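If your schedule permits, I should be very grateful for your opinion on a structural question. I have a record of one protein: its chain in single-letter code and its fold written as discrete structure tokens. Kindly check, if you would, that the fold set down in the tokens agrees with what the sequence suggests. I remain grateful for any guidance, and I place the record below:

***
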Amino acid sequence: AENEAAKALAARELAEMKLREGIRPILMPTLNEFEVTKRTVEYKEGWFHFAVVGTAGTGKSSLVNALRGLRNSSRGAAQTGTSETTMNVGRYADASNRPFVWYDVPGAGTVNVPDWKYFVDQGLYVFDAIIVLYGDRFTEIDVAILRNCSRWRIPAYIVRSKAGVHIQNTINDFLQADGEEEEDEAPTSARARGQYIKSTREDVKRNLALADLPQQRVYIVDKDALTTVVKGKEHPDFIDEQELYRDLLAEAGSRRIVPE
């Protein structure tokens, strides 16, 4: 008994030392935890379950609404706000009655959800596909989620949100730097859009390489344009919204879906 206690103490001290040095343990759920999580999120066999995840404040709830073809003000939409409004995993059926379920997952990197425990604590290992959403910066938290997706062989999609806001901010920077007036905004808008798209793709490529993760596409979207895509209508400022929605549907279609 004393020998076992000594081993346990040594293991604990080693784990604490690694935490102090920034080495995070690899957390794996038990079989029982796996089954409990599936029941908790109401996982339905034959249906496809998409989880939208990422750091706090990136617009996850807005993206879930857009993917369901809803505005943030629509009845039945996920609650949105300027701070992290999602404290529990939200489950939303597809608005078109297809056998899809969209999940709005609390943000990583908050006091309540430390980044290194996020994947397992939120039960992300049970989902069929994961959308890693980021806003201002592609962070270590996003990398950690992608690494866990790879470990669990779960398809992951990198999405940058709030394209309209970011492009407008870039336009304002250009106008201030160039001393241009409002009437000159059209060519500036095209330049800002091009720079934003280019810098976003280069940033993700660089961060994936630094993390030694496989290169993959980043989808640049705006919630209003994405809502329009889901509704089957045209929008003047599409970037990657059509491709994202098409690829998500193709991912779901590649699995065996059994409607009720």
